[in-house]
Amino acid sequence: MTWASLGVRIGGLAVLLPIVLPRLAAPEVxxxxxxxxxxxxxxxxxxxxxxxxxxxxxxxxxxxxxADLHMPLASRKRLHEPDCQLxxxxxxxxxxxxxxxxxxxxxxxAAIGGTxxxxxxxxxxxxxxxxxxxxxxxxxxxxxxxLNGAATAVVTGFDRVADTRRRDAxxxxxxxxxxxxxxxxxxxxxAIVSCYLVWQIPLYxxxxxxxxxxxxxxxxxxxxxxxxxxxxxxxxxxxxxxxILMSAGIIQASGLVYAQFATPAAxxxxxxxxxxxxxxxxxxxxxxxxxxxxxxxxxxxxRNDDLLKLATRGMVLAQWSFVVGAxxxxxxxxxxxxxxxxxxxLPGFTMLALLSAAFFVERYSSMHIQLYSLTNHIVWHIANGxxxxxxxxxxxxLRPLIGELxxxxxMLGAYGGFCAWFASRLSLRSLQINRASFEWRTTAGPTVILxxxxxxxxxxxxx
Length: 463
Hints:
Layout: H1 2-20, H2 26-43, H3 49-61, H4 66-69, H5 73-76, H6 88-123, H7 128-157, H8 161-184, H9 189-216, H10 223-258, H11 264-284, H12 286-289, H13 292-300, H14 304-340, H15 349-373, H16 380-402, H17 406-431, H18 435-442, H19 444-462
Helix pairs in contact: 1-8, 1-11, 2-6, 2-7, 2-10, 2-11, 3-6, 3-7, 3-10, 3-13, 6-7, 6-10, 7-9, 8-9, 10-11, 10-16, 11-14, 11-15, 13-14, 14-15, 14-19, 15-17, 15-19, 16-17
């Protein structure tokens, strides 16, 4: 069901966009895309706690202990009983404490930051009031997504990924179907955005109900043990959070920045390209990310051979999935938009090729970081922190030279020049496997096909 749930996101491009784009003006499309981007950024504002808690719950169920979570000896001294069995109940209780505070802070930041970035684009609408109403509804969706992230982390930690993906698939399909029908009936921005909020409610309630049932079987814990868990996981969580915000956060926020100085049509084209390639990237995560709970359990059980086989299979499928999606974005999507009479077109081939290559290297890097994170030595803040700073520096240098191509070129340079080799070096060393052998089995084929397609496309357009 992982493929089905993430495959619904293709529907957002293959079904909903062809209906919406001819019916909304370019300024409305821009605001709609910005609202989607802000929603995505808000889901990352949990600062790395959702994947961290999912991983730690799975780790606890595999027999891990607090000492394994808190590797540095100096840090272990702060724990009351560092070598005791890690309690699933303690992890879940600690999660409740964290998310109460985290959601309040994230919503305040989303409200302030989102309102600021939307001021100029909303003012270009024929009816700005509709844009602000849509923004209020989007804030409601952001809140529900944060709450849903907490519930999903528990369910994922209990290795019930299929359950959450099944619900994602069904309710995501209902979201898309409702939004498409509303758009066909003449509904505009507010009506379309409302469709997403309406179906977020049952999705959260269903995930919360299952998480509550799974939590009930975990043994009760005492306050001291919850504090020990928080001390142990905080370094991993903040490092993961900084890593996410300094990588994917910068990439997605670039569209919001671009909208502050570009024309509505140009900004909408850039955001549409980002949405298309991001969808391809997210869909390609399914074969690998769905295996993370099982990989965490195998690591806790010291079954490294089985871990390597499972990780290899997941990475191969993930990279081939992305290549297929990227080829569709580069070669098929522009013609489809022209055929449907869209008010917004995609950028040129060079932009799409750079984005495809950059996101491919980003996916490669992220999977290796996730593999290394199974050791509970979190380096997200180093890998993606340095990468994010490099992206910003390269963007500032390249912007006067190549204009709108600066962001994808900076992303490709930063990930290829640092993050890819840094993350893979740590990951492969932890797996104790030869690089050439591993890359030949996982990355060589997808890389050759993607590069060949980009060269073919460039030559085709040069004629």
